[in-house]
């Protein structure tokens, strides 16, 4: 979600007409919630590479500091702040800490998630379900609530929220995750309408997250087969989209769900098609190597 941006990008930060700008976030301040690893950490580094000062938030302070040190080592500006996205005071303090450190907030990426492991719905522990909803829905609500207020004081900004293809189509065994990600999409659309400007959700498909990496080669092979491109996406590919959505180049996108899924949301692409009246031959089409 984002607020009006007609005067948000300061003149000193804007490239001259017709001149390519490889640092579109120069002079901006970006906040990444859920920044301690993979997609969040990679996006925080991408924001810094694009010229932004970055505030990193998560519950794991040591991991945050490690990401912040990598950014600083490359000449960027980064501040790590411990935060629990489901706690209102924690999120208010996070945004206030951002303002104290850099004086403004221009872009936010709400990426934190949590919840129970995969299981049939009737087997899910109610407290674990509540944790998933608190992190995804309440956490995104609290993030936007305080981020929007801060952005409005300095002329506007952009919020990108992390959903999932699972929040659009549903996935068996992931009741809390699906409900949480679907809720994020709904919240973002409402916020976009409330502030008459951009509301943006990114919905990744099979991305090489720590969970998928830990699941091993066979899980990764099957995840790749689910995408028409027949490969798993990378955190860097998600980060590039988030940074672009947070930059002036995407200023006319609003209320949108952006799939980063190798074509998975477009429909079904079987590994091999059969011909009517003919037996199907053995194929290596499902080999992702």
In short:
The chain has 289 residues and is an alpha/beta fold. Helices cover 41% and strands 12% of the residues.
Write up this protein.
With 289 residues, the protein is of the alpha/beta class. The chain has one domain: Rossmann fold (3-Layer(aba) Sandwich). Helix content is 41%, strand content 12%. It contains nine helices and seven strands, in the order βαβαβαβαβααβαααβ. Strands 3-2-1-4-5-6-7 form a seven-stranded parallel β-sheet, with helices on both faces. β4, α4 and β5 form a beta-alpha-beta unit. α1 runs parallel beside α2 and α3 packs parallel to α4. The N terminus and C terminus are likely disordered.
The tally of helices reads 9
Return the domain count.
1
Number of strands: 7
CATH architecture annotation: 3-Layer(aba) Sandwich
Q: What is the quaternary state of this protein?
A: single chain
Widest beta sheet: strand line-up: 3-2-1-4-5-6-7
CATH uppermost class: Alpha Beta
Could you tell me the mean pLDDT? 84
The largest sheet, given as strand count, sense and whether it forms a barrel, is: 7 strands, parallel
Task: Provide the CATH superfamily.
Answer: NAD(P)-binding Rossmann-like Domain
Question: Radius of gyration in whole Å, from Cα?
Answer: 20 Å
Helix content: 40-55%
Strand content: 5-15%
- Taking pLDDT < 50 over at least 5 consecutive residues as the criterion, the unreliable ranges are 1-20, 285-289
Shape: globular
- Within the CATH hierarchy, at the fold level, what is the topology? Rossmann fold
């Amino acid at each position: 979600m984002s607020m009006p941006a007609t005067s948000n990008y300061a003149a000193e930060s804007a490239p001259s007409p017709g001149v390519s700008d490889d640092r579109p976030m120069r002079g901006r301040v970006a906040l990444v919630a859920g920044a301690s690893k993979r997609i969040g950490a990679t996006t925080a580094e991408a924001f810094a590479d694009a010229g932004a000062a970055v505030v990193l938030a998560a519950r794991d302070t040591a991991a945050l500091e490690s990401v912040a040190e990598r950014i600083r080592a490359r000449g960027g500006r980064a501040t790590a702040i411990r935060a629990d996205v489901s706690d209102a005071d924690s999120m208010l303090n996070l945004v206030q800490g951002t303002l104290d450190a850099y004086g403004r907030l221009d872009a936010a990426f709400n990426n934190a998630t949590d919840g129970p492991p995969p299981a049939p719905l009737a087997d899910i522990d109610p407290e674990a379900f509540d944790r998933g909803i608190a992190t995804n829905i309440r956490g995104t609500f609290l993030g936007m609530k305080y981020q929007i207020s801060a952005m409005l004081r300095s002329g506007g900004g952009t919020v990108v929220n992390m959903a999932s293809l699972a929040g659009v189509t549903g996935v068996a065994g992931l009741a809390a995750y699906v409900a949480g990600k679907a809720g994020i999409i709904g919240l973002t659309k409402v916020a976009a309408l409330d502030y008459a400007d951009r509301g943006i959700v990114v919905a990744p498909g099979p991305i090489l997250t720590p969970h998928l990496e830990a699941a091993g080669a066979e899980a990764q092979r099957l995840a790749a087969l689910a995408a028409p491109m027949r490969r798993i996406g990378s955190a860097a590919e998600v980060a590039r989209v988030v940074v672009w959505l947070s930059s002036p180049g995407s200023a006319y996108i609003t209320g949108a769900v952006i799939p980063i899924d190798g074509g998975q949301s477009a429909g079904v692409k079987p590994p091999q098609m059969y011909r009517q009246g003919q037996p199907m031959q053995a194929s290596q089409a499902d080999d992702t190597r």
